[in-house]
Design a protein that fits this description.
The complex is a heterotrimer of chains A (323), B (570) and C (285). Chain B has 18 helices and 20 strands. With 570 residues, chain B is of the alpha+beta class. In chain B, the strands form five sheets. In chain B, strands 12, 13, 14, 17, 18, 19 and 20 form a seven-stranded mixed sheet that branches. In chain B, strands 8-9-10-1-11 form a five-stranded mixed sheet. Chain B has a four-stranded antiparallel sheet with strand order 4-5-7-6, covered by helices on one side. In chain B, β15 (392-393) and β16 form a beta hairpin. Chain B is globular. Helix content of chain C is 74%, strand content 0%. Chain C has a single domain, classed as MetI-like (MetI-like fold, Orthogonal Bundle), CATH 1.10.3720.10. Chain C has helices spanning 5-13, 17-38, 40-43, 74-109, 113-127, 130-141, 145-156, 158-172, 175-182, 187-223, 234-243, 252-281. Chain C is elongated. By secondary structure, chain C is an all-alpha fold. Classes of the chains: A mainly alpha (323), B alpha+beta (570), C mainly alpha (285).
């Protein structure tokens, strides 16, 4: 058992090393040049010497192996360096963006798990019935919506035509609100992006829950409970749902981890200042340090989620625990 | 029911956490802002804001919310990102010695007068009396001298290039500066005096590494009509008016610039009333649509940005002038203007110079002539030998890849139209839409033309300043990379070189006009690139909030001039 | 795994026909779209690449969905878009399934060394930063429809690989497999004879799901400007609608809605088939 854990840890370590190496290599394999980003739009006006100086200033003239070593050093020390674009510490930038991304992802996670789990449970319980069929079809249809399309339509309806919700950003620009007014402002701005994300992610939760429920419904102890005459509601929520939840939690954990990559499309459509937008702009401008740092956060989040799911699964699923 | 309320609570908790975190970061950006910001606003009711300078009938302060696409960083002379609107926003905080008037001509501004000598090598500048920086320190000739030295020494790309050829700067008394150039520079006013922000010596003398120095609203100040008091990365900038501005208090009390992630965001936000003006050119189809929406108005005018075709002139078959001429003859520029720009553009002159410029040579015309194009290609031996509709050269079909950047949808459409047009003369063009940095790297590797070119054909465009200053055409066509450092097509011709070099230093106006006239004919004939169109600038604004926008010829409305009282404008 | 007899008991409670009905609905949608794709030249009133009228026309008798920003017929674009979008979806899914099935089979059949190495590789692929990978691939492969397909395929093969592997893992310990191995059958033969056929249905489910994913991905790439806007796909129609502001004008009804609904229909069609197939595989469900 111990040996197996060690082996597993070893494998995780290998994945981390490979992922970090790729995070380092990918930005540098991209065609294009971070020079424009560092020097600004007037890069064409620079003399060759000035160009060389700029490249040297950010350490891009160093041998690639040294740059790679520096990246590892930054990971170990936790100081992810400075952005080419703004010269700001990247730790600070990520700390600034992450809460917004988590607000969207967290909001969507909460909403989609509530709707997904409840509707999935109902659907499975009433399998093939009048509720299940339209629900199932509807969910699969929702899953098939292009995200930007939905986001833009929501903007068009609720912000432009009805004028009831803001169309962009995370807060009213430069309004400097405080207290409840600020909370309200933040919530108002989050409504449309969270709605979009929730609509798109509920079907996944729903389908997972439905599958898992159906599996549990077929098991012996449920039939026993039924034959004992326990009330439907009690069986549904007390036995089935509780036992079916483990795969759903795993699914949600991984989904949440992936949200650390930021919702690039949603954040673009709503001009929302989250991680996805940071990554997209870093990628467009070839801001190597920011790209590396953001990918690192993403890698770490997904691996953590995998690990957590591995650890939590036995705890959550009474069946695996007993066996 | 219960579940829903629980969800609401969870959501609330999550957002509170987020708010707590984000307000912390806002604090750090804004820390230290308060003192100057308030001192700047405190005097807003004193005698400087004379009754006739305020456009608003009420005492209600006017806030204008403007939209830009993409951030401009901390917006100081070393960090602003784009030439437009980044530089324009920067210049809300800073002043230059001269300022563009509505006609796009530089007029004295911080300078009371600008007097060149006869051969344009010595420029005597007299400063306006009593100008102060926004922190209350006076702006003196020493600051001007310091600024020139600083930008040269610390290599600020654009401003250092502006000051190329400056041999010495001397001050004489309190108000006079003399700038000596190593060669005549007829464009010195345009490129340097109206371009360079004057920075305060008392702050910048302590800044060793301006690229990394973290400025705040106390240190990032010039003498301009606005002070940047708040900045949240990729979200917004907040400028407050400087009521003591030397040309009179601005007509707007507060300017909030919102950063959008894409072009369609501002269009939605101006319709929903969340912003008041878009500081980016709007797409041609939006002109009519937005103008029709009340209370939105659109101001439109010709601008100096360009849309063109580049080709690698160093490689066959583009090294053959006949091929280039044929391409220029085969494209229907009017069709591009009508179809892609819906008429909101000026047809490109094959001689590069915009028809609105005084030095434009009307002798160069750009009419599509398919027969002539076909004849040229036939004569030069590019014939379709295998009957597939595509001509051959050296046994290979004349089939080329034309790179274009996917972020510019109009340019993409232009490329498609060009491909269609060239097909009619037997040249196949495959449009390849790539991401912007990839496209730049292929056309202009490392932003240094010495690195060569990795493309066959490319849709390209230059920003307004290059067209605005006509003599900069030398940078596009001169064969010597130190002069023609924007010569992306690898073009070289001794006659063109001679004229271009003459133009750069020609002090005599008539001789300069003569040279630029001849150069246009040569360019139209030798076709180092194909100029297709000069798109119009069109800007949408909410006229109920503020309607004092001034369209500066060739440059648009994003300027401090738009935010000053008409009597205070140059 | 619970005893098989249970399914018999449950069959009475849960009608099998639900999955079938939905599956047939999906098949109907897909068949309709495939028909549209095949007969596009007959169905489309115009050549979608030709400028046939003024730009930005509202719907009329000549142009049922109006024209786009350069005067191309939007209905024809939608019809031809079916071709491109379905091709991208199907071919990318084939690419993904070929890689995914191969990796899944090998990793499941040799779970010790080779398998765990392969699965760690799958882990890495799943956490690879998507955007730069895309740009890098596009840069080295060039930009064309083929490459969009390859890129999407390469990006989505990992999930099917995992599913197939777990199936193979369980098949591998079945009696008939153990028996034929003990009789000295070659691995290749065992895989081809016993394993592959039994994963085929599962793979079909994954495949159809991948098609639906690929169609959506193509649209998303187009939106980010990373697709090929010259190709007349539904995604590129939306890219143009978005970049020419159609979402905020009355034109959304004829320019934005139809391609969006088409993407949804195609994705739904394939997803319903996938659902039905998956229900079949796991009779317990």
């Amino acid at each position: 058992m111990k040996r197996l854990d060690l082996q597993k840890l070893g494998q995780y370590a290998i994945v981390i090393v490979v992922a970090v190496t790729l995070n380092f290599a990918l930005p540098r394999l991209m065609p294009g040049n971070p020079l424009a980003l560092i020097a600004g739009v007037d890069v064409g006006l620079l003399t060759p010497e000035q160009r060389a100086q700029i490249i040297a200033d950010v350490g891009l003239d160093e041998p690639i192996i040294n740059q790679y070593a520096d990246y590892w050093k930054s990971i170990v020390t936790g100081d992810l360096g400075q952005s080419y674009r703004s010269g700001r510490p990247i730790n600070e930038m990520i700390a600034e963006r992450l809460p917004w991304t988590l607000l969207l992802a967290g909001g969507a996670l909460v909403l989609s798990s509530i709707f997904g789990i409840v509707l999935g449970a109902i659907s499975a319980w009433r399998r093939g019935g009048k509720v299940d069929v339209p629900l199932l079809t509807g969910m699969i249809a929702l899953q098939s919506l292009p995200s930007f399309w939905l986001g833009m339509l929501l903007i068009s309806i609720f912000a432009v035509n009805l004028g009831v919700l803001p169309s962009f950003g995370a807060v009213s620009p430069a309004a400097n609100l405080e207290g409840w007014a600020q909370v309200r402002d933040v919530l108002e701005h989050a409504v449309l992006p969270i709605t979009t994300l929730s609509v798109l992610s509920t079907p996944g939760v729903y389908l997972t829950m439905r599958y898992s429920m159906l599996e549990v419904l077929g098991e012996d102890f449920i039939r026993t409970a039924r034959s004992k005459g326990a009330s439907e509601r009690r069986i549904l929520f007390g036995h089935v749902a509780r036992n079916a939840i483990a795969p759903v939690i795993t699914f949600l954990a991984i989904r949440f981890a992936f949200s650390f990559g930021g919702a690039v499309i949603i954040e673009t459509v709503f001009s929302y200042p989250g991680l996805g937008r940071l990554v997209f702009e870093a990628v467009s401008g070839r801001d190597f340090p920011v790209m590396q740092a953001a990918f690192l956060v993403f890698t770490a989040a997904v691996l953590m989620a995998n690990l957590t799911a591995d650890l939590l699964y036995p705890v959550l699923d009474p069946r695996t625990r007993s066996s | 029911m219960r579940l829903r309320s629980r969800a609401a609570i969870l959501l609330l908790v999550m957002s509170l956490i987020a708010v707590a975190c984000s307000s912390e970061t806002t604090d750090t950006t804004a820390s230290g802002d308060e003192p100057t910001a308030t001192t700047a606003v405190d005097g807003s009711t004193d005698e400087t804001s004379a009754p006739e300078t305020t456009a608003a009938p009420s005492e209600e302060p006017i806030t204008v919310r403007a939209a830009v696409t993409g951030g401009e960083d901390t917006l100081n002379p070393y960090t602003y990102v784009s030439g437009f609107p980044g530089w324009n926003l920067l210049m809300l905080q800073y002043d230059s010695l001269m300022q563009f008037d509505a006609a796009g001509e530089p007029q004295p501004w911080l300078a009371e007068s600008v007097e060149p000598n006869d051969d344009l090598t010595e420029w005597t500048i007299t400063l306006v009396d009593g100008v102060t920086f926004n922190d209350g320190e006076p702006l003196t000739v020493d600051d001007v001298e310091f600024t020139f030295d600083y930008f040269v020494e610390k290599a600020a790309g654009r401003f250092a290039r502006d000051l190329r050829g400056v041999e010495s700067v001397t001050t004489d008394g309190d108000r006079t500066i003399t700038v000596n150039l190593d060669a005549p520079n007829p464009a010195f006013e345009l490129v340097a005096l109206a371009d360079i922000p004057i920075i305060p010596q008392h702050i910048w003398s302590e800044v060793d590494n301006p690229e990394e120095y973290q400025f705040d609203s106390v240190t990032n100040v010039g003498s301009g009509p606005f002070v940047l008091v708040d900045y949240v990365e990729d979200q917004s900038y907040r400028f407050e008016a400087n009521p003591d501005y030397f040309r009179g208090a601005p007509t707007v009390d507060e300017l909030v610039v919102v950063v959008f992630a894409d072009d369609s965001g501002p269009l939605a936000a101006i319709r929903s009333g969340e912003i008041d003006v878009i500081f980016e050119r709007i797409s041609p189809e939006q002109i009519e649509l937005l103008d029709a929406a009340d209370p939105i108005d659109v101001v439109q005018g010709p601008e100096f940005t360009t849309q063109m075709i580049n080709f690698d002139v160093s490689k066959a078959p583009f090294d053959d002038v006949a091929v280039r001429q044929a391409i220029s003859l085969a494209v229907d520029r009017q069709d591009i203007v009508d179809t892609v720009f819906l008429g909101a553009a000026t047809v490109g002159s094959p001689g590069w110079v915009h028809p609105d410029k005084a030095v434009y040579n009307p002798a160069v015309a750009a009419d599509q002539d398919l027969e002539a194009a076909n004849a040229l290609l036939d004569e030069a031996g590019y014939t379709d030998t295998d009957g597939d509709g595509i001509r051959e050269f050296d046994g290979a079909p004349m089939s080329f890849e034309m790179l274009t950047n996917s972020s510019d949808s109009l340019r993409l459409r232009i490329s498609e139209l060009v491909s269609e047009m060239l097909a009619e003369v037997g040249i196949q063009v495959n449009v390849a839409s790539v991401e912007t940095a990839t496209w730049e790297e292929a056309v202009w590797p490392g932003f240094d033309i010495a690195n060569g070119r990795n493309y066959q054909m490319a849709a390209w465009g230059w920003s307004a300043p290059i067209q605005a200053n006509t003599i900069r055409v030398a940078e596009l066509v001169h064969g010597d990379p130190s002069i023609g450092f924007l010569n992306l097509t690898g073009f070289s011709n001794p006659e063109v070189d001679a004229l271009a070099a003459q133009l750069l230093t020609e002090a005599d106006e008539a001789a300069a006009a003569q040279a630029i006239g001849e150069l246009q004919v040569l360019i139209a004939d030798l076709v180092p690139f194909v100029l297709l169109a000069y798109p119009d600038g069109a800007y949408a604004y909410n006229s109920a909030t503020y309607d004092g926008w001034e369209f500066i010829a060739g440059q648009g409305i994003v300027s401090k001039v738009s935010l000053l009282d008409p009597s205070a404008r140059p | 795994m619970t005893s098989r007899s249970l399914t018999g008991t449950l069959r009475g409670v849960i009608p099998r026909s639900l999955a079938d009905r939905l599956g047939w609905l999906g098949a109907g949608i897909v068949a309709f779209l495939l028909g549209t794709a095949v007969f596009a030249p007959v169905l489309a009133p115009f050549d979608p690449a030709e400028r046939v009228a003024r730009p930005f026309l509202a719907p009329s008798a000549d142009h049922l969905l109006g024209t786009n920003d350069v005067g191309q017929d939007l209905l024809s674009e939608l019809i031809y878009g079916t071709r491109v979008s379905l091709t991208v979806g199907i071919v990318a899914a084939v690419v993904a399934m070929v890689i995914g099935t191969t990796v899944g089979l090998i990793a499941g059949y040799y779970p010790k060394r080779l398998g765990s190495v392969l699965m760690r590789f799958v882990d890495v692929v799943l956490i690879l930063p998507f955007l730069p990978l895309l740009i890098v691939l596009a840069a080295y492969l060039g930009r064309s429809l083929t490459n969009t397909i390859v890129v999407i395929g390469v990006l989505i093969w990992a999930a099917p690989a995992r599913i197939i592997r777990s199936q193979v893992l369980s098949l591998r310990s079945r009696e008939y497999v153990l028996a034929s191995r003990s009789m000295g059958a070659k691995d290749r033969w065992v895989i081809m004879r016993h394993i592959l056929p039994r994963t085929a249905l599962l793979a079909t489910g994954s495949f159809v799901r991948a098609v639906s994913g690929a169609i959506l991905l193509e649209a998303a790439l187009s939106f980010l400007g990373l697709g090929d806007p010259i190709q007349k796909s539904w995604g590129s129609t939306l890219f143009w609608a978005q970049s020419r502001g159609a979402f905020l004008t009355p034109a959304w009804k004829w320019w934005v809605l139809p391609p969006g609904l088409a993407i949804m229909a195609a994705s739904l069609g394939f997803a319903l088939i996938a659902f039905a197939v998956e229900e079949r595989i796991n009779p317990k469900l």
